[in-house]
Q: What sequence folds into this?
């Protein structure tokens, strides 16, 4: 399976946390994230992050997001592709271990070339999450 690279376009009003170690700013050990950092700041309904993803062929693609729910309630993510919201909302359940990363997957339709993907918190109360990565691959 070939995974397609993606480019983080904007984290406006969000923060991207990075660290040289497996400890956060208050010295507590965290589960490892996949790259140089991860996206925080998705605590409020409407908070979002925008990615650009280029694919060689139009069609349906599974989209995987790696997240952790740091809130007190289930979080819900709205996925918007090229200014069109997909019908299925991603449910991001609360975990007992708030430092554990989870994955969720949904199907998206992409056009040939560059596509813009927004991950938006649409939880009404108590649900917030952090993003480690998003990735997709062509269906086999």
A:
């Amino acid at each position: 399976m070939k995974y397609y690279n993606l480019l983080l376009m904007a984290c406006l009003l969000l923060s991207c946390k990075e660290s040289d170690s497996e400890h956060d700013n208050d010295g507590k050990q965290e589960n490892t994230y996949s790259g140089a950092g991860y996206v925080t700041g998705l605590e409020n309904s409407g908070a979002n992050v925008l990615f650009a993803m280029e694919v060689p062929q139009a069609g349906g693609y599974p989209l995987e997001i790696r997240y952790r729910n740091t809130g007190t309630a289930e979080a819900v993510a709205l996925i918007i592709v090229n200014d069109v919201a997909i019908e299925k909302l991603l449910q991001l359940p609360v975990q007992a271990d708030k430092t554990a990363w989870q994955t969720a997957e949904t199907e998206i339709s992409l056009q040939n070339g560059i596509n813009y993907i927004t991950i938006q918190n649409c939880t009404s109360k108590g649900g917030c999450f952090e993003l480690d990565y998003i990735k997709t691959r062509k269906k086999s």
Observations:
- Residues 1-16, 18-29 have pLDDT under 50 and may be disordered.
